[in-house]
Write the structure tokens for this entry.
Amino acid sequence: MRSALCEQLGIEYPVLAFSHCRDVVAAVSRGGGFGVLGATTLTPEQLEVELRWIDEAVGGRPYGVDVLVPEKLAGMERGSGFNGAALADLIPAEHRRFLDSLLKEYGIDAPATAGDDDERPPAGDMREPFAEALTGEGALRLIEVALTHPIRLVANALGAPPAEMIKAAHAAGVPVAALAGKREHAERHVAAGVDIVVAQGYEAGGHTGEIATMVLVPEVVDAVAPRPVLAAGGIARGRQMAAAMALGAQGVWTGSVWLTTQEAETHPVVKEKFLAATSSDTIRSRSITGKPARQLKSAWTDAWDGPGSPGPLPMPLQPLLVDYALHRIRRAAATGSPGAVQLVNYFVGQVVGSLDAVRPARQVLQEMVEEYVDVVAAMADGLN
Ligand SMILES: Cc1cc2nc3c(=O)[nH]c(=O)nc-3n(C[C@H](O)[C@H](O)[C@H](O)COP(=O)(O)O)c2cc1C
């Protein structure tokens, strides 16, 4: 199991765990895997707090940080800065009306798109960490903070990482990984200077392409050799991990499986929905971020796909339009509002169908590794 990548990252098991939850990151790193903190929704100040906590919690074990810098954004260029007010002007009135009436239909007080409480700034003055981080500048500020901590990996999704990000990471001796949903993406990443490619298949939770993990991984492995490849999408247990390694990956990059762990701060209603869901209950939808992202089907995704929908806007306009509404839905769902409970959802992959119990993250990792060892031994003995 100890691949060259294990040496490079200083880990015992080649299992990388993407999570927005610092407790999951720390538990996986402490358990011998490698936690990667999703930083996109954080401000640089919040990230500093999270990383200080992780540094204390991991006791010197390695971990990494992940950001999103899309190559294509509507109404703005990479690195052009974030102007929430100017972008808000690009949102058609029809979309605002659709969202307001959707929330009303499900019993959630309008207005959906303007902050009317203390928790959010008013529309047009949305310094949303997510929208801001999407510009290369916002992400670079996050990476600069991260590089003042002993991180062992910088990862980027939705395009090749910007040159400044790669330069900053390499100057600090930190390798850079990037997610690829097609062989062409992987080739572009390598040309840009990426050290580790994450080949992420269609079945994955979050932003995802159209090629299945089984097809994608060997294509990417061959295209970028001898650079290491991590397989992602549909990996939640040892048998899937063994398949990924058989496809030529040096390790696995996982996301959904951690969402139902004890440590995960997944919304309680969403966690229950995940535990009850089957592998048919996800959909690739642009309704949250404006780019296709796999998530749980709910009244929210049905409405955006439905006959009355004007269709989601491109990134970053869709998150600017819906972020505040989603915040209200999550809050109302937590208090048991029946409409909000029907609407609420979150990113998750097709493996949601096999997530049926809440376990500590360390146990999930341990069971994955044990099943991997058993199945590889059985195959070597010709028993499978
Ligand atoms: C809730 C959720 C949020 C995600 N957000 C990001 C992200 O911000 N950046 C990123 O690189 N990948 C993100 N992903 C994708 C994961 O990094 C990973 O590639 C994916 O979860 C692997 O497939 P799996 O969900 O089948 O394990 C997200 C995945 C999930 C489930």
Remarks:
- The chain has 16 helices and eleven strands.
- Residues 18, 38, 40, 66, 68, 155, 157, 179, 200, 203-206, 232-235, 253-257, 346-349, 351 surround flavin mononucleotide (CB under 6 Å).
- The mean pLDDT is 91.
- The first strand starts at residue 15 and ends at 19.
